[in-house]
């Protein structure tokens, strides 16, 4: 099998070397993604949350790389810290990734021939990686700052005894310096860290052939990496020479890991929130010195909650699914009493519901909602502190219900975060009266829209 695989890599290398370079068409800064209505040629796993929609993907069904989605030069926070390839990055002389196409997948590979130059000349380790952000130009091709569910289907193999063997699907904080790597209160070579202690700077959905999942984050006051925030390895899966589906659900307050549609591990402690509040660079890559390493990727897909008409609150009418997601709490859906659509939310006395959402920071918004019932409804908006989950009240009110739906509104301003980073906000309702209340058509919109 491995002899045949080696022959395939040799043929693939020749095919790749003959491919004409596609022009790079990228947009400076954050790119606004749109939801895709095309049906994928192979279904995603059952881990995709019901109601989320495909907003970014690559099926790798062409014979050239889609340069509107990918850069082909590897670079990361760790190299910027160590400076092994800093000048080469700035000079635009880093080695290009080696890859080939089958018509329905992409092979990212390293062998004795390709890439032409090793990334680390000292140990001859080569890297063939594609990614959505470029350090040299500070260009981003994927705005995933609102998180979402991301999934890849891969098959990984190697021949010989490659040193530094790795195959990875991972997320890294962007550049063009170390501000997201360094923690708050740390200054290194003129760069001051902005990352709160306990927030990730890197997420490895899988690395190595055992598919280790890693949340990186502990960095000391001198900028040295100390240890992981969390890590685990899922048992019972065969990763070598086998198709496996890997997924990650990234929300404002949690990170969940899936393999073949099965939940492996959930990090959901609201007092230790690992989630980043900014876009992350997405990587797919193979790494090794000697022998050959190959990762075949069938697809990569990103799903998010659809937002419509300027409303930045997912599932505002409780129509997306029967679990009320991404709302949390006492979810009971009403089909008899509703203002619009097929269902609304029913809160019995004492029951409560909340949703955590990413919004633009330091911006005025208005929360509106419609309520029906002879009771009292408490509504609140809280700015949520990163990592600790501590909440600072923005606005709140208690309103009395009525026999028909009445509209209520609350204006608030999101708390401040660095630059264009997102602010986590909690939208909260509680029935404080003695009678049931039905809520429908909740909106969170920027003031002035």
Q: How is this structure best described in words?
A:
- The protein has 449 residues and is mainly beta.
- The chain has two domains: 2-304, Sandwich (Jelly Rolls); 328-446, Jelly Rolls (Sandwich), CATH 2.60.120.260.
- It is built from three helices and 28 strands.
- It has helices at 2-18, 77-82, 86-90, and strands spanning 53-58, 99-101, 106-110, 126-131, 133-134, 139-140, 148-159, 163-172, 187-188, 191-192, 202-207, 212-219, 225-232, 244-250, 255-259, 262-267, 281-289, 292-304, 328-329, 333-334, 344-347, 352-360, 364-372, 376-384, 391-400, 406-413, 422-431, 437-446.
- The strands form six sheets. Strands 1, 2, 3, 7, 14, 15, 16 and 18 form an eight-stranded antiparallel beta sheet that branches. A six-stranded antiparallel beta sheet has the order 4-17-8-11-12-13, with no helix packed on it.
- β9 (187-188) and β10 form a beta hairpin.
- Residues 1-33 have low confidence and may be disordered.
Write the topology of this structure:
Layout: H1 2-18, E1 53-58, H2 77-82, H3 86-90, E2 99-101, E3 106-110, E4 126-131, E5 133-134, E6 139-140, E7 148-159, E8 163-172, E9 187-188, E10 191-192, E11 202-207, E12 212-219, E13 225-232, E14 244-250, E15 255-259, E16 262-267, E17 281-289, E18 292-304, E19 328-329, E20 333-334, E21 344-347, E22 352-360, E23 364-372, E24 376-384, E25 391-400, E26 406-413, E27 422-431, E28 437-446
Antiparallel strand pairs: 1-18, 2-3, 3-18, 4-17, 5-6, 7-14, 7-18, 8-11, 8-17, 9-10, 11-12, 12-13, 14-15, 15-16, 19-22, 20-21, 21-28, 22-27, 23-26, 23-28, 24-25, 24-27
């Amino acid at each position: 099998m491995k002899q045949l695989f080696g022959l395939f890599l040799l043929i693939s290398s020749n095919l790749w070397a003959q491919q004409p370079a596609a022009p790079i068409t990228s947009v400076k800064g954050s790119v606004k993604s749109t939801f895709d209505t095309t049906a994928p040629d192979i279904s995603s796993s059952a881990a995709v949350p019901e109601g989320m929609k495909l907003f970014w993907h690559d099926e790798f069904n062409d014979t050239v790389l889609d340069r509107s989605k990918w850069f082909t030069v590897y670079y990361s926070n760790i190299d910027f810290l160590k400076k092994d390839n800093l000048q080469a990055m700035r000079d635009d002389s880093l080695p290009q990734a080696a890859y080939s196409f089958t018509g329905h997948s992409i092979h990212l590979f390293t062998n004795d021939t390709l890439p032409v130059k090793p990334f680390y000349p000292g140990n001859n380790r080569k890297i063939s990686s594609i990614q959505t952000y470029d350090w040299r130009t500070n260009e981003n091709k994927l705005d995933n700052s609102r998180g979402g569910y991301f999934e890849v289907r891969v098959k990984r193999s190697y021949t010989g005894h490659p040193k530094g063997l790795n195959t990875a699907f991972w997320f890294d904080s962007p550049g063009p310096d170390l501000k997201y790597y360094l923690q708050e209160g740390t200054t290194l070579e003129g760069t001051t860290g902005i990352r709160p202690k306990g927030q990730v700077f890197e997420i490895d959905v899988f690395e190595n052939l055992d598919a280790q999942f890693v949340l990186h984050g502990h960095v000391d006051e001198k900028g040295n990496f100390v240890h992981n925030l969390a890590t685990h390895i899922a048992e019972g899966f065969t990763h070598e020479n086998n198709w496996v589906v890997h997924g990650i659900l990234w929300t404002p307050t949690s990170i969940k890991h899936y393999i073949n549609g099965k939940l492996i591990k959930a990090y959901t402690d609201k007092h230790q929130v690992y989630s980043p509040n900014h876009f992350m660079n997405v990587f797919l890559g193979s790494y090794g010195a000697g022998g050959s390493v190959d990762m075949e990727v069938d697809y990569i897909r990103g799903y998010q909650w659809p937002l419509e008409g300027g409303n930045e609150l997912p599932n505002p009418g409780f129509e997306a699914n029967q679990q009320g997601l991404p709302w949390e709490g006492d979810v009971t859906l009403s089909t008899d009493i509703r203002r619009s659509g097929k269902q609304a939310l029913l809160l019995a006395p004492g029951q409560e519901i909340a949703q955590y959402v990413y919004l633009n920071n330091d911006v005025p918004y208005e929360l509106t909602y419609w309520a029906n019932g002879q009771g009292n409804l408490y509504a609140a908006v809280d700015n949520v502190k990163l990592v600790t989950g501590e909440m600072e009240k923005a606005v709140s009110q208690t309103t009395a219900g009525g026999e028909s739906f009445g509209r209520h509104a609350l204006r608030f301003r999101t708390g401040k975060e660095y630059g264009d980073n997102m602010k986590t906000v909690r939208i909260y309702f509680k029935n404080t009266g003695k009678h049931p209340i039905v809520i429908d058509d909740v909106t969170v919109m920027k003031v002035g829209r």
